[in-house]
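Q: For a teaching handout, I want to show students what a protein-ligand complex looks like in C-alpha cell form. Below are the inputs, and the small molecule is pyridoxal-5'-phosphate. Please produce the holo structure.
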Amino acid sequence: MPGVEAVASILFVIGTNGFATLIPMLIEHSTAATLTVDLGAIVQNWRLLGAQAGSSHPSAAVCAAVVKADAYGLGVAEVGPALYEAGCRDFFVALVAEGAQLRTLIPRDATVYVLHGPQPGAEIDCAQHALIPVLNSPDQLQRWSSLANTRGEHLPAALQVDTGMRRLGFEARDFEALDGDSFTLATLGGIKPVLLMSHLVSAEDPANPINRIQLEQFEIARKRWPGLRCSLANSSGIFLGRGWHFDLLRPGAALYGVAPVTNKPNPMRPVIRLQAPIIQIREIAPGDGVGYNHTWCAGRPTRIATLSVGYADGYLRSLSNRATVRFMGQPAPLIGRVSMDTVTIDVTELPENAMIPGAQFDLIDSVHDINQVAIDAGTNAYEILTSLGPRYRRRYLAP
Ligand SMILES: *Cc1c(COP(=O)(O)O)cnc(C)c1O
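A: Here is the structure, written as C-alpha cells, with pyridoxal-5'-phosphate included.
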C-alpha cells in the first residue's frame, strides 16, 4: 500500500496530541480535500429545534426539515434519509426537481412541499411525485386548480401569504379575494389547502420590530382560514418564542449548524469538518511575495505550506489574507490570495517535522465553525454551506 510511511509519521505526531481517533481519515493518497458531514449532529439539531416547541405540550408544533439546495450543500441523499429515520415526516424543497429526487430517497408517507410552487408546465410532474406545491400567486393557484379540474380530483396545496418579504406569496389583497369561507372546492376547482405559511424577514434579530409586524399580518391571514395548519418559523423564527411556532416549524440552516440568533451563543451542534492536505512546503525570504498579485509579502524568513483547496471548492476567495486554519488545533494564518485549487498558509510557527505532504489542516471544524468562517469571509454561514463544492471527498458519519 503506497503512502504507508506517511501514515506512520503522522500517526506519531498526532498520537502525542491526543487526536489518535482522527488518524484513519487524515491519511489519503488523493490530494482532494475532505468534507466530513456528521449526520448524527444534524439529527440532534433537528430534535433540539423540535424540543423548542415543547414536546410535552399537546398542541406543540411539529418540526419539518428544509432540505432545498441539496440539503444546503451537504447532500440530500444522505441527510434526507437520516432525518426520516429520526422521525421527520415533513420536508421542504425549493424546486419540483428537488422534490422528485427526494421522493426516491425516503418512503412515501413523508410530506414533501415545494416552496417555489410549480412553474408553468411542471404541474403534472408535481402531482405525479405527490409533491405539495406552495402556491404563491393567483397564477400558480389557477394552474394547480386547472390540473385538479382536468383530473377530476382534489389536489392538496400549501398557500403562502406575503407578510413582508416581498419575494414569494400572495399579497394581502389577493388573499382577501380568496376568503376561506368562499374558498370552496367548487369555485377553486378542487384545490385542498393543507397549510398556510409565510416567511420571516429578520428572525435572527429578535429586537427587530418587523418580527411582530409579520406575526400580526400572519394572524390576520390566519383568521380567514380557521382550522388550517399554519407555519411561520424558519430556524431563527423558532427562537423568537412559541408565539411564532403555530403547527409546523420550518428550520433549514440551524439543522446544519448555522447559529440561529445573532450575538447569542450558538445552541446548534457543529455538523461539518473541512480538511485539506499539504501538497508542498517551501521556505521564503523577507521581501518575497506570495500568490497572485503578491497581496502578502514576507517580513521574516517564512515557511509556507500549500494546501489542496481553493475557491473552485467553495472556499471563498474573500477569505484571502483573512482566514485562519488549524493543524492539530494550532492556528496558522492563510496568507495571500485564495487560488482556484490552492491556498497558502504561514506555517513558520508549526512543528517543522510535521509539515509534510499529506498532513491535514482543518479549515472548518468545531473550533472555527461555519459561522466563524462566514465572518472571516464577510458573508453568512448559509453561503459558506451552499458553496461547498463537488470535488471534496465526502465522508458521512452515521447517526
Ligand atoms: C429556506 C427557507 C426556510 C428555511 O430557512 P432557514 O433560515 O434556513 O431555517 C424556511 N422557509 C422558507 C420559505 C424558505 O425559503
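A: Two things your students might notice: The CA atoms of residues 235 and 251 lie 4 Å apart. The chain has two domains: 39-256, 271-397.
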